[in-house]
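Standup notes
- DV: blocked on the single-chain target, sequence here:
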Amino acid sequence: MNKAELIEAIAIDIDLTQVAAGRLLNIVTRAINNTLANGEPVSLVNFGTFSVQNRQGHSGRNPRTGTKIQIAATKVVHFKAGKGLKTIVKSSSSSSSS
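- DV (later): unblocked, structure below
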């Protein structure tokens, strides 16, 4: 599912125009982005938790030349699926493999 398909699904589900559903999705994603940018987690019960984690710097190799390089420390977004999402995915994968 891409963003346009998600907007369409939202519009159908809560009887909104696609423009209004698009605005709603943009507001939600902007709020998540801003919260994560401030270093705070975003928890959605039964869905999961988005958080920012620090990844330490480390040495690596350039795959093309084999030269050692230093990879800088950085912040990354981490997602941990909630129990509800795990249950839905698990039950759908077991029924689709039959």
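- Follow-up: The chain has a mean pLDDT of 94.
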